[in-house]
Amino acid sequence: MLRRRLTGVAAGCALACAIPAVGPTAGPTAGLATGPAPAFADDVRGGQQPVIRTLDLKAAWRVSRGAGVTVAVLDSGVDPGHRDLAGSVTVGEDFTEGANPPGVAPRRLHGTYMASLIAGHGHGPGGRRGVIGVAPRAGVLSVRVILEDEEPGFKEFNTAERFEDVVARGIRYAVDHGADVINMSISKELATREERAAIRYAISKGVVLVAAAGNDGDRPAAASGFAPYSYPAAFPGVVSVGATDRRLRRAGFSNWNSSVVVAAPGVDIMGAGPGDAYWVGRGTSQATALVSGVAALIRAKYPRMAPPLVVQALTASATDSPPGGYDTATGFGVVNAARALAEAGRLARHTETAAGGEAQDPSQPFGGGHAGPIRVVRRDGTRATIHLWAAGASGAGAVASLGFIFVLVRRVRRASEPQDA
């Protein structure tokens, strides 16, 4: 019985072609090529320019490049040897172990592609060749939670009950191993309580979660009148990302429903693949990776910024906002890295924190229980003093004004009274 379908390539990403790189390991990955035109690795950077301009990355990089931040890539695995990622990847747990037959190595195509969009640093003199990611100085933690469609264990993985909660386990593993941002360019039809609790656990630990809205937007609408929801993107607290085309309008395949928070480019996106190859693809997966990169830039500059404030920085600074400020196609608009960092700088001046009875209880689902009153645990004494002084000055001014009015009224009354001859 098919319990659920957890996918990366099919639901979150469509790969159009492979572009061989220069070197002995060059070549397309078998089974996914559709007649690509060969190109040199330094041509890849030219193909990235539309994304670099849309996200305003050159301005953003003057503020932050993601140094010191770890982005967990929950995906099909990342090739740590790709020259555009070398030295930036830590290979973590494989929660799909046992799905493939013994001796079958993971393909790691989709995961490598996503990691390169987040943290690729290029190669060659000055790193000017190959893929440059949004946060080129960030680190990547690879956590394998999916198989790609072409892997022999794909059916086993999607039907065996022992793999039901791999996403929840992957989230907790990433949190416990130092992730600041978790990228989930994956899609799942059904949600579980374990996943919901893992999401809450991650947020309680200050981790920003970003996930793909899904690629079912060009199918007939669901009974709700919108594209179907996908998980983990539709969980509260997760940044659900839609994809835009070259005109920055919703790409036809991108899911449209009220879970969508922001959007990013998702058509003809250049990325890296295993074996020093390069790929061009489309999907909400790519858009999600770009947004995770922007979140990494923010966390690098403001490492203590809480996840809700990071999300606010992303949404409040978005460009191409729809009429009214929000719609189900692109959320609050298209993410802009430079503007998001500027907004984060404004939000970083926030000086109060609050805590409630169950504010960080990872065992409870969202909306469960009664948190009780919120208690302010830190105050800005300087601002409070200024406000108190201003209030005191205003009060003194009011008293003085009333006194002046009283004297003036008495003088008027005396002037109007008859005087003795």
Protein architecture, described:
There is one protein chain. The protein is α/β, with parallel strands linked by helices and about 425 residues long. It is about 35% helix and about 15% strand. The chain has helices at about 10, 40-45, 50-55, 55-60, 110-120, 155-160, 165-175, 195-205, 285-300, 305-315, 335-345, 380-415; strands at about 15-20, 70-75, 90-95, 120-125, 130, 140-145, 180-185, 210, 240-245, 260-265, 270-275, 275-280, 355, 375. Strands 3-6-2-7-8-9-10 form a 7-stranded parallel beta sheet, sandwiched between helices. Mean pLDDT is about 80; it is low at about 1-5, about 15-40 and about 415-420.
List the helices and strands and how they pair.
Layout lengths: L8 H4 L1 E6 L21 H7 L1 H6 L2 H5 L8 E6 L13 E6 L14 H11 L1 E3 L5 E4 L6 E6 L9 H6 L6 H11 L4 E4 L8 H12 L3 E5 L26 E6 L15 E6 L3 E5 L3 E6 L1 H18 L5 H10 L20 H11 L6 E2 L19 E2 L4 H36 L5
Whole-number mean pLDDT: 82
Largest sheet: 7 strands, parallel
Can you give the helix content as a percent range?
A: 25-40%
Strand order of the largest sheet: 3-6-2-7-8-9-10
Q: Give the N-to-C terminal Cα separation.
A: 115 Å
Tally the helices: 12
Shape, principal axes of CA atoms: globular
Rounded radius of gyration (Å): 27 Å
Q: Estimate what percentage of residues fall within beta strands.
A: 15-25%
The H-and-E topology, N to C, reads as: HEHHHEEHEEEHHEHEEEEEHHHEEH
The counted number of beta strands is: 14
Which residue ranges are poorly predicted, with pLDDT under 50 across at least 5 consecutive positions? 1-5, 15-39, 415-421
Task: Kindly name the structural category.
Answer: alpha/beta
